[in-house]
Amino acid sequence: MEQASFLRDRLLPIGTVLLALLALWYVFVVVLNAPFERDQAARAGGTIGFMELLPKTMAQERPVLPAPHQVFAELWDTTVNKAITSKRSLVYHSWITLSATLLGFSMGAVLGVLLAIGIVHNRAMDRSLMPWVIASQTIPILAIAPMIIVVLNAVGISGLMPKALISTYLSFFPVVVGMVKGLRSPEQIQLDLMHTYNASPAQTFWKLRWPASMPYLFTSLKVAVAISLVGAIVGELPTGAVAGLGARLLAGSYYGQTVQIWAALFMAAAVAALLVIIVGIAHTRVLKRMGART
Amino acid sequence: MNLSVLLAAIVFWLAAWAFNEWLVRRKFVNPAADRAARIAVPLIFGATILVLWEGIVRGFNVPSVLLPPPSMIWVRLINSVPTLWADFRQTFLKSVLVGYALGCGLGFLVAILIDRSPFLQKGLLPLGNFVSALPVIGVAPIMVMWFGFDWQSKVAVVVIMTFFPMLVNTVSGLAATSHMERDLMRTYAADWFQTLVKLRLPAAWPFIFNALKINSTLALIGAIVAEFFGTPIVGMGFRISTEVGRMNVDMVWAEIAVAAVAGSAFYGVVALIERIVTFWHPSVRGGQA
């Protein structure tokens, strides 16, 4: 077999594709923003040459598509140059979203694991609950998000909790499905061995089923953490745009601040990547401690 | 507090639970009866939830602004069929179906196109996996700005959301055949196209259908959420956000019920087609899923 090489198999292909995307982005910046500049020139009573038009398309106040460097300038400006406590700081908004995500994610993970344990140990629960767990995901819960927020607000629960509940609902599903599979992954021989040891159900669970389910748990946690961030962002949309990444998106779309939207979008992507990477690191750590080879 | 209603609901819950336990433990000789029991168990569970919901809402006199009882939602659903149908047509038939077809089709085509270039695959796959984990829904405001308020912008959001899962799954599905099978095709002197159509595409169907199923729910979510950012005065997302503002919670729940039924039916149709196309797969032929 060929030796895997980081440069040849990772850096070069991914780098090429990224560069191509970046180049494509710049082309689209010119194409999409040019009509506005031509309009301006026509209004001033003249025409505008391509070489004049080119730099102008990249520095518009409210471009149709902001150029990458504009987005990164905005990102830099709102993360580094602003105090973290300032309402204009993207770090502040990210933290609001992140705290709701983390709370919802932990509740969803715990709920998912508990449901999975119930489903594996009780046949009536398996038969009656499992189809509904699956059906619950075909319901576009994100559509219910505004109502959950408004209703909980009316009861007097506001702030973090409603958003976290939406994240919980979204993230429990992958955990349930993954954990049911994982807790059932020990084979009959292994279960029989536990039986010959006269192991109690609790011992079978803690010493066989639980460790065997770890790879499944972390795979579904990765999906769950990404989706709970989506839940938190969407949960911020109907709150009247107070704070958070979702609020930044909404405010940006109301006032036509495209650069702000794109900056919030990139920040959300960065947060999502960070969360998935953290879960990935925890995954390899746990597997290593359990003696798995990487 | 209305104690008798609450008690009745709880009694019904316990009875249904006991009946389910009995049904699960019983062994049926007749296979038809066994199948009926399998279907009945989740249905009874669902009915129990509805009865408990109704009982708790009526028992504790929960104001219907917070949580309307199912019967009230049903009445509202029946009474506003024309509105619901218009919303359904705008959101589901236009945005979701068109976007779903375009997004899945594009993902599939691109996967086939980059199939012959390992370089592009290595470059695009990690990116595709990465993008699948991102909150793609955030592009909704941008798409609304670019393509206007009508359904075209929702189609664009749905296309972007469904494209990457399809791309990633198709590429890994096309790689699912083993060397032995591909070598066999070579000994038959099959060219790239024949190998693709006769061996690798059939082997990729389970992966492709996996993406189609994931996308069926993603598409509906994308279309509804995109409507929060601006829409003409029709559509499921529009109706939900405005009726919430007017505190017509029963109408919101009716809309959610429609969305749930539409989403489940969509998923069910895709799953049904999967069973027909991949009849040879172990998970369809019986045994464990």
TrEMBL record, chain A:
Keywords: Cell membrane, Membrane, Transmembrane, Transmembrane helix, Transport. Residues 94-283 form the ABC transmembrane type-1 domain. Signal peptide: none annotated. The chain crosses the membrane at residues 12-32, 95-120, 132-152, 216-239, 259-282. It holds the Pfam family BPD_transp_1. It is found in: Cell membrane. It is a multi-pass membrane protein. InterPro entries: MetI-like, MetI-like_sf. CDD domains: TM_PBP2 (cd06261). The keyword Nuclease does not apply. The keyword Nucleotidyltransferase does not apply. PANTHER family: ABC TRANSPORTER PERMEASE PROTEIN HI_0355-RELATED, ALKANE SULFONATE ABC TRANSPORTER-RELATED, MEMBRANE SUBUNIT. Belongs to the binding-protein-dependent transport system permease family. This is ABC transporter permease. It comes from Shinella lacus.
From TrEMBL, chain B:
It is a multi-pass membrane protein. Keywords: Cell membrane, Membrane, Transmembrane, Transmembrane helix, Transport. Its main location: membrane. This is ABC transporter permease. It is found in: Cell membrane. Signal peptide: none annotated. PANTHER family: ABC TRANSPORTER PERMEASE PROTEIN, ALKANE SULFONATE ABC TRANSPORTER-RELATED, MEMBRANE SUBUNIT. The chain crosses the membrane at residues 37-53, 97-115, 127-149, 155-176, 218-240, 252-273. Residues 105-275 form the ABC transmembrane type-1 domain. It comes from Shinella lacus.
